[in-house]
Amino acid sequence: MVGLLLVAGVAVAVFVGFNIGGSSTGVAFGPAVGSNVTTKVTAAFLMSVFALIGGGTLGRGVIKTMGGKIVAASHFNLAAGVVVLFFVGVALLVSNLFGVPASTSMTAVGAIAGMGFAGGFLKWEQIGEIVSWWFVSPIIAFWLAAVIGRYAYPHLSARFDIERSGDPLVAWKTVGPIDIPTGLADGATYGELASSGLVVIIGCYMAFSAGASNVANAVAPLYGANALGSGFAPYIIIGGGAISLGAFTIAARTLETVGSDLTELPILAALVVELISASLIGFLSYIDIPASLAVTSTMAIVGLGWGRATRSKTVTDVAKQAVAGSDDSPRSPADGSERASNGGREGPSPDHGVTPIGDAVEDVRTSDLYDARATGRVIVLWVLTPSIASAASYLLFTLFPLYR
């Protein structure tokens, strides 16, 4: 019986990690693949390596938290671990059905908390700290991105052209059985080479943060149950290996999706979002807090769009409208290349063509940059998914006390 439960637990853990690898690879390396900086196979390889490094370093603390600090590890067993992993798998299904990035981290914590509440051994102080960060980190992501979108993004866009022609960047020479680089390819520039390298580096940083946070989602219940011993190595290998499997298989589709959507989210915007969300999740993993990379990234996207949309109004304008009760929608430039009226004169502003704050652009709508309804749907499911997992887990473990 124990052998069958162990096989089932490992199988569900691999399923969870497999799906995490499929989705996280697209988030991390979609900009690089979409702009022809790297191939899907290279992206999968880099995702595998850096997710494993993230899981094996910062991810250990997250595994400890989910496998023994929300409820004591002594209350875990294989049956309870399989049930928790089942709820994580259901969260992935819900995420796919609704097209919203539901958090596997939040769902896993919710399921574990439900078990602890049912048995009366939930560590409230720890769960309170985790939930507090769940609310704080997306708010931080939103406002960091909003400030960048309002004040810095148009200037960055005007100065840095992160685009790829699709032609080779480096010239190679075959020496015996290997190829060695000999310099820039014809038509390539050092600026293009540097920007392409930046896209890959930030993708690797994102993969590291994804591994630090998400390996625990796949294996923490097994770790809590001591299913494969007390050491971290077998759990990290299973979680990292499952993420790698997803990266080399189903991630091809998510990479195409993200790459084809780059007209909606330019490469520079994607890199800003990745840098903010990866840094926040990396910090939370460092302090052993399981958190959602998907939710943080989504709120950073919303914040960046909202910040860019508010450039058409000054702080004074917003304050006056708030006092007057006006609900006029702001109109904003989408990037730094657009033109402004500049005091009634058509043409670019003196600062690299960046539209000054307070000037509107006639053909750009706020809804093109910021969708309030979509944001509301994300936030509702962000709260709803772990809540449902907690309630369902509580009911199940109340009726069937599988814990020990």
Helices and strands in order:
Layout: H1 2-34, H2 40-56, H3 59-69, H4 78-98, H5 104-119, H6 124-159, E1 170-175, E2 178-184, H7 190-224, H8 233-248, H9 251-260, H10 267-286, H11 293-309, H12 315-324, H13 372-399
Antiparallel strand pairs: 1-2
Helix pairs in contact: 1-2, 1-4, 1-7, 1-8, 1-9, 1-10, 2-7, 2-8, 3-7, 4-5, 4-7, 4-13, 5-7, 5-13, 6-10, 6-11, 7-8, 7-10, 10-11, 11-13
Word description of this protein:
It is a single chain. This protein is mainly α and 404 residues long. It has one domain (2-399). It has 13 helices and 2 strands, in the order ααααααββααααααα. It has helices at residues 2-34, 40-56, 59-69, 78-98, 104-119, 124-159, 190-224, 233-248, 251-260, 267-286, 293-309, 315-324, 372-399, and strands spanning 170-175, 178-184. Strands 1-2 form a two-stranded antiparallel sheet. Helix 10 (267-286) crosses helix 11 (293-309).
Q: What is the radius of gyration?
A: 23 Å
| Overall mean pLDDT | 81
Order of adjacent strands in the largest pleated sheet: 1-2
Largest sheet: 2 strands, antiparallel
The beta-strand count equals: 2
State the low-pLDDT regions, or none: 329-350
What is the strand content?
Answer: under 5%
Structural class: mainly alpha
Number of helices: 13
For this entry, give a set of tags:
404 residues, two-stranded antiparallel sheet, mainly alpha, 13 helices, 2 strands
Give the gist of this structure.
This protein is mainly alpha-helical.
